[in-house]
Amino acid sequence: MKNRIAIIGCGNIGVSLLHGLMQDTQTDASKITVTRRNIEELDYLKEYGVNVITDNKKAVNDSDFVIIAVKPYNIVGILEEIREMLNPGKHILVSVTAGVSLKDIQDQIKVKIPVFRAMPNISASVGKSVSCLSHGEAAKDDIEYVKNIFNTMGTTMIIDEELMQSATILGACGVAYVLRFIRAMIQGGIQIGFDAKTASEIVNQTVKGAAELLIQRQVHPESEIDKVTTPKGCTIVGLNEMEHNGFSSSLIKGIVASYEKIEK
Ligand SMILES: NC(=O)c1ccc[n+]([C@@H]2O[C@H](COP(=O)([O-])OP(=O)(O)OC[C@H]3O[C@@H](n4cnc5c(N)ncnc54)[C@H](OP(=O)(O)O)[C@@H]3O)[C@@H](O)[C@H]2O)c1
Questions:
Q1: Residue 208 C-alpha to ligand 1 middle, in angstroms?
Q2: C-beta of 97 in contact with ligand 1 (< 6 A)
Q3: Tens digits of residue pLDDT in 125-138
Q4: What is the model's pLDDT at position 52?
Q5: Phi and psi (nearest 5°) for 132?
Q6: What residues are paired with 32 via a beta bridge?
Q7: Which of 52, 105, 249, 252 has its CA 20 to 30 A from that of 259?
Q8: What are the φ and ψ backbone dihedral angles of 88, each rounded to 5 degrees?
Q9: Are 137 and 30 in contact (CB under 8 A)?
Q10: Alpha-carbon distance 125 to 21, whole Å?
Q11: What residues does each domain of the chain span?
């Protein structure tokens, strides 16, 4: 059983994954090693038993499951640095770095180990990510193992690698789109009479509840909208006003603009 985990380049998403892992009661923090160059930023993790070091090679050597979480411009250097420590039969490598293909990773490491790409999002830190995974040649057990690790941080799905950029936009950047939507609703709530804290509480729970409705009932959003929109009522008037101002169109255009940017 592989249970020693290294997170190489533990920044925003690395820390989110770590927090998600640590929420799982089965996880032994002393078996997790995290790295970055400025480790003082991660000092607080030591009190939970996490190994915090700058030495990427040691982190890989002390683990069997390696998550690479650096920016795309850092990954080649990291892979060159750690490749001599990667051991077939021991290691599984998962990259969450956007835009770097399985083939590019495999070409850099030059050893035959199972390589995965994962696209989680920062909600991993509260166990609510959706993580899209794709992989090259890998045994069934290894695929199950990687899925199980990411399942501790939310839900997981396997997708074709060619959809990884789309997963980055919809799932990872998607958190930012939703948060901006939430912020706008809070601002509206303040204008119609609530203080910021109360407006946030109402909006956060409303968004959570709406998502939960769709997840649990497996229904289309519009069928639930129909239940809220009384003919000639205030909801449909508000919704139509939003659409006249380009609400759906602006969201779709934003998603497509992000996608065009990532594809460049
Ligand atoms: N943020 C998200 O929501 C999210 C979600 C899914 C995927 N991703 C992808 O994950 C990748 C990282 O994103 P991020 O937002 O987490 O970036 P980030 O906060 O900048 O984290 C990257 C970390 O890598 C560390 N690093 C750089 N060079 C290193 C080296 N040689 N050795 C060890 N650590 C090194 C940096 O710390 P030092 O400078 O201290 O070394 C930094 O903390 C990106 O490709 C992104 O697309 C991000």
A1: 28
A2: yes
A3: 999 999 999 999 99
A4: 98
A5: -90, 130
A6: 5
A7: 105
A8: -60, 140
A9: no
A10: 8
A11: 5-159, 167-263
**DSSP type of residue 249:** H
Q: What is the CATH number of domain 167-263?
A: 1.10.3730.10
User: Is the beta carbon of 179 within 6 A of some atom in ligand 1?
Assistant: no
pLDDT tier for residue 264 given thresholds of 50, 70 and 90: confident
Evaluate: CB of 171 within 6 angstroms of ligand 1. no
User: Does pTM surpass 0.90?
Assistant: yes
- The answer to whether 8 touches 60, Cβ cutoff 8 Å, is yes
Strand locations in 2-55 (E): 5-8, 32-35, 51-53
Q: What is the CATH number of domain 5-159?
A: 3.40.50.720
Pairing of strands 129-135, 115-119: antiparallel
Q: Could you tell me which residues come within 8 angstroms of residue 211 by beta carbon, excluding any fewer than 6 positions away?
A: none
d(CA 139, CA 122): 28
What the block records as the tokens of 232 is: 């000639």
For residue 225, the CA-to-ligand 1 centroid distance in Å is: 39
Cα distance between residue 153 and residue 96, in whole Å = 14
Residue 158 has pLDDT above 90, yes or no: yes
